Amino acid sequence: MAISKNFINPSRALSMLPFWFWNDALDEAEIVRQIADMEAHGVYGFVIHPRVGLPRDTGWMSDRMMYFMRLAVDEAKRREMSVVLYDEGMYPSGSSSGQVVAANPVYQCRCLAHIELNATDEFSPHLLNSLKVHKRITSQILPCFPSETREMIDLQPLSYLVAVVPRADGRRIAVINRPVDAYIRGLHYIGDGPQEDEPLAADILNPDAVAMFLHLVYDRYAEVLGDEFGKTVHAIFTDEPGVLGRPRERNVWPGTTGILDYAESVLGYDFTPHLPALWYDGEPDAARYREDYKRVIVARLEETYYRQLYQWCENHGISLTGHPGRGDDMGFLRYFHIPGQDLVWRWVLPGATALEGPESTQGKCSASAAVHLGRERNSNECFGAYGHEFTWEEMKWLVDWCFARGVNLLYPHAFFYSVRGPRRDERPPDVGPNSPWWDVYRPFADYVRRMSWLNTGSKHVCHIAILCGATDLPWSAAKICFQHQRDFNYLELRHLWEDAQVTGDGIEIAGMHYQAVIVDGLTQIPLEAQTALETLCAAGRVIAWETTLEVLPGGCAIPHTPDELLAEIDRLVAPDLIVTPVALDLRYRHVVKEGIHYYIFTNEGLESLHTTVDISIQEQCIRGKYIWIDPLAMSERAANAPFALTLAPYTSRILSCHCDG
User: Is residue 581 packed enough to be buried (19+ CB in 10 Å), middle (13-18) or exposed (0-12)?
Assistant: First the structure.
């Protein structure tokens, strides 16, 4: 059986798309030269990322910046390469490098803050001055104060008293909605650097502020580059929007104007009496009310930010890509045409962090979201701030970590336009032209395309779902599944009542059929999910792992050890493969493409592993139609059952199987 030509040399559309840091004075000839250099090394596209170090004559969204962007897009078009546009100067997204607030000061990022009150100072002039009462609502607030103090109020704009609320111990606090001292990273150095401009962060919980952001950035892109939308320009990248920007102050909570009215619409009750719980652990049910308020902010951010951006891109024939702020933020991904996440700051490396903690979930987060939302691609912005000590081996390990979890589009962070002066040390490393491995990069770039091809347009063979919330993907049960080759997807709870079919036989959604359902660590179950969970529990398909059982209907299995968890999974789903002896560092993914079964194997440990693999479809396969493939060296050899597998660290192998049916 010959290896598919599409696998050996996949389409250029499956190329990695590195962040290309435009971080110095730009030059037409140098832009063309660097694009040609990328193409010569097997990199067939890029993300144009204006970055700190640009001269001030090349300001964000200026005519000069757009001139260079047009030049780069035209050159990419000539070379049949792809371009992704970046929506901020520089991040987090949503402020247009301070231009949103400059357009209207009301759009500045806001917060809820509090002041502790003594018994006698509720209406003191000192307190009133500190509140900076907004002129527009003075008439609503003044009746609360004695007449002799009203004329002493300092009527400063943009801040207002939300409420004076009693605490459980009888003391009171004043809660204020006001601008927060927050910024985003800017594009220009102050002097010769490395100190940077810090533009004001915008209130992305305010729909009007986000509409202004869309006008200043997205409409501007459409004006200058819209003729290439959906052609050379495939997507716009939004980057970890933060509801408090990058705050200089602490002990404040996100809070746009009118947030408590919105909270009541989401929660079904008045949150005002529970405001002290945001700051004081000793308040009744403080943890619960904090979680409720976080849920309000998540719902608001979906509505005001992500949904608006998604709809704009939908209307303009271009994809929204990028990623939210946290590695286990799954709910926001429904508003991405290309769901994505972000491997940064050495948060994921061989060892515990590969399988533990919220960042360890992000590969499965984006890939699972893509499956259930019907998206063809899902992405990872990888390697950012891994430091100058970052090695070739670590880079290979990280891409394999992504591929084994189903990621099929990589945004390497980053290729530096310039490494002059402080630019070299700004969120290093350069993983492209200024790296020590650039001369041998081509085989790696081809490898990335091949692995992306395997995970694109293929059928994922998987029958285990781990339920999760919108912003909290559990990792404990996932770790056990990874270590024992029980592949799974995360399934956000809201799918249970929105678009999944739930019966006693399991969950069917987007072509997937989950027969084993794991509930790991959840402490709250939405009322809308109760009926579906009752059906699944009654059929014996729910496995509760480290979960507060009060939130689940009766009938679920309750394992207490990893072996018991695996036994419960195997009771519901026959293992897709059996590994003998156990290989805790072996990761696998089984996909079917062009009628061929592919088993992707990677070694996530730092020692060689030696084991034997027995695959469940073995009896269906045509004798002599097994091939071991080395996708980096692009070599092949015949395979025979039982399949002996030896993997050195940082390596991967693929077993391809041609079946009768």
Answer: exposed
Segments making up each domain of the chain, as ranges: 5-100+185-279+289-454, 110-179, 462-575, 580-659
Q: Letter for the amino acid at 72? A: A
Q: 3-class SS at 247?
A: strand
Secondary structure letter of residue 4 according to DSSP:
P
**Residue 655 CB contacts under 8 Å (≥ 6 apart), including other chains:** 598, 599, 601, 613, 615, 626, 627, 628, 629, 639, 643
> Which ranges in 207-333 belong to alpha helices (H)?
207-213, 219-225, 259-267, 286-301, 307-315
630-653 pLDDT per residue, tens: 999 999 999 988 899 999 999 999
CATH H-level superfamily of 5-100+185-279+289-454: Glycosidases (3.20.20.80)
Give CA torsion, residues 627, 651, 428, 363, to 10 deg: 70
Kindly report the length of the chain: 661
pLDDT band at 660 (very low <50, low <70, confident <90, very high): low
The residue type found at 203 is D
- The structure tokens listed for 226 are 């819209």
**Residue 155 and residue 141: Cα distance in Å, rounded?**
12
Reduce the DSSP state of residue 320 to 3 states and report it. strand
User: Which of 3.30.70.890, 1.10.10.10, 2.60.40.1180, 1.50.10.10 is the CATH number of 580-659?
Assistant: 2.60.40.1180
Contact 137, 258 (CB under 8 A): no
How far apart (Å, rounded) are the C-alpha atoms in residues 324 and 336?
10
Max distance between CA atoms of the chain, in angstroms, equals 95
Q: What is the pTM of this model?
A: 0.93
Average model confidence (pLDDT) for the chain? 92
- What DSSP line would sit under 348-409, residue for residue? S-TTGGGTSSGGGGHHHHHHHHHHHHT-S--EEEEEET--TT--HHHHHHHHHHHHTTT--E
Residue listed under structure tokens 């004081």:
280
Q: In terms of Cα–Cα distance, which of 411, 490, 403, 400 is closest to 454?
A: 403
DSSP state string for 8-44: HS--GGGS---EEEE-S---HHHHHHHHHHHHHTT--
The DSSP string of 460-498 is E---EEEEE-SS----HHHHHHHHTT---EEEETTHHHH
Query: Would the pLDDT of 120 be above 80?
Result: no
pLDDT digits (tens, 9 = 90+) for 282-336: 999 999 999 999 999 999 999 999 999 999 999 999 999 999 999 999 999 999 9
Tell me whether residue 356 is exposed, middle or buried, using C-beta atoms within 10 angstroms of its C-beta: 0 to 12, 13 to 18, 19 or more: middle
Q: Do domains 462-575 and 580-659 have the same CATH topology?
A: no
Higher pLDDT: 419 or 616? It is 419
**Mean pLDDT, residues 539-562:** 89
Query: 462-575 — its CATH code?
Result: 3.40.50
Q: How many whole angstroms separate alpha carbon 122 and alpha carbon 137?
A: 18
